């Protein structure tokens, strides 16, 4: 038996989300049908609004309602340090630590020859443009400890170091994205404090 069109469509939509297969999507779709109508309306509105109202900061690539983002506009922050991460989610993680007070830059991915992702496909050009500003003295690279993350860190280091800017990497190969669920804030803080020059 085939599902009626509306629920088939809903299942199909849920399956477009990462990590959700047919079984989970079907469960979520049936759950949605039984939800309060107001909750479903709020859910639908939130989906549309999140995409409509959020943009990428034109300076750092973070997600923001206003451009530039709050972090880039905050002159109280240390303007001499830029911490480079793979995704905006990593910024949220580091900010929860309340220990890092510099600036950020989001790459929106890593170099990946297998996926055909080269330097032009991630947010590197705008980072190099930022570094022309003399105020930046150190770039901390916090890409994940995956082969792609390491290769991206090495690539960036080779690009940035000749400009006389210090390039460091988080200590102990601890990365923000992949290991954070297993690392408490103290471990992450130590990884930032104990960062090593590349
Ligand atoms: Zn920003």
From TrEMBL:
<dbReference type="Pfam" id="PF13662">
    <property type="entry name" value="Toprim_4"/>
</dbReference>
<dbReference type="GO" id="GO:0008270">
    <property type="term" value="F:zinc ion binding"/>
</dbReference>
<dbReference type="Pfam" id="PF21176">
    <property type="entry name" value="RecR_HhH"/>
</dbReference>
<dbReference type="GO" id="GO:0003677">
    <property type="term" value="F:DNA binding"/>
</dbReference>
<dbReference type="InterPro" id="IPR006171">
    <property type="entry name" value="TOPRIM_dom"/>
</dbReference>
<dbReference type="InterPro" id="IPR000093">
    <property type="entry name" value="DNA_Rcmb_RecR"/>
</dbReference>
<dbReference type="InterPro" id="IPR034137">
    <property type="entry name" value="TOPRIM_RecR"/>
</dbReference>
<keyword id="KW-0479">Metal-binding</keyword>
<dbReference type="InterPro" id="IPR023627">
    <property type="entry name" value="Rcmb_RecR"/>
</dbReference>
<keyword id="KW-0227">DNA damage</keyword>
<protein>
    <recommendedName>
        <fullName>Recombination protein RecR</fullName>
    </recommendedName>
</protein>
<keyword id="KW-0862">Zinc</keyword>
<dbReference type="Pfam" id="PF21175">
    <property type="entry name" value="RecR_C"/>
</dbReference>
<comment type="function">
    <text>May play a role in DNA repair. It seems to be involved in an RecBC-independent recombinational process of DNA repair. It may act with RecF and RecO.</text>
</comment>
<feature type="zinc finger region" description="C4-type">
    <location>
        <begin position="57"/>
        <end position="72"/>
    </location>
</feature>
<keyword id="KW-0234">DNA repair</keyword>
<keyword id="KW-0233">DNA recombination</keyword>
<dbReference type="GO" id="GO:0006310">
    <property type="term" value="P:DNA recombination"/>
</dbReference>
<feature type="domain" description="Toprim">
    <location>
        <begin position="80"/>
        <end position="175"/>
    </location>
</feature>
<comment type="similarity">
    <text>Belongs to the RecR family.</text>
</comment>
<keyword id="KW-0863">Zinc-finger</keyword>
<dbReference type="GO" id="GO:0006281">
    <property type="term" value="P:DNA repair"/>
</dbReference>
<dbReference type="InterPro" id="IPR015967">
    <property type="entry name" value="Rcmb_RecR_Znf"/>
</dbReference>
<dbReference type="Pfam" id="PF02132">
    <property type="entry name" value="RecR_ZnF"/>
</dbReference>
């Amino acid at each position: 038996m085939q599902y009626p069109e509306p629920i088939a469509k809903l299942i199909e939509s849920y399956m477009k989300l990462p990590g959700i297969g047919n079984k989970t999507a079907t469960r979520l779709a049936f759950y949605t049908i039984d939800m309060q109508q107001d909750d479903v309306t709020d859910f639908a509105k939130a989906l549309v609004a999140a995409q409509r109202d959020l943009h990428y900061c034109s300076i750092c690539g973070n997600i923001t309602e206003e451009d530039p983002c709050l972090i880039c506009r905050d002159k109280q922050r240390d303007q001499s340090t830029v911490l480079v991460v793979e995704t905006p989610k990593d910024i949220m993680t580091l900010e929860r630590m309340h220990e890092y007070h510099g600036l950020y830059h989001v790459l929106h991915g890593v170099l990946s020859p297998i996926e055909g992702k080269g330097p032009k496909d991630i947010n590197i050009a705008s980072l190099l443009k930022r570094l022309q500003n003399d105020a930046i003295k150190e770039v901390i690279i916090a890409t994940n400890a995956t082969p792609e993350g390491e290769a991206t860190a090495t690539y960036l280091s080779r690009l940035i170091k000749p400009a006389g800017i210090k390039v460091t990497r988080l200590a102990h190969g601890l990365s923000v994205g992949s290991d954070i669920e297993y690392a408490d804030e103290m471990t992450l803080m130590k990884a930032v404090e104990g960062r090593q020059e590349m």
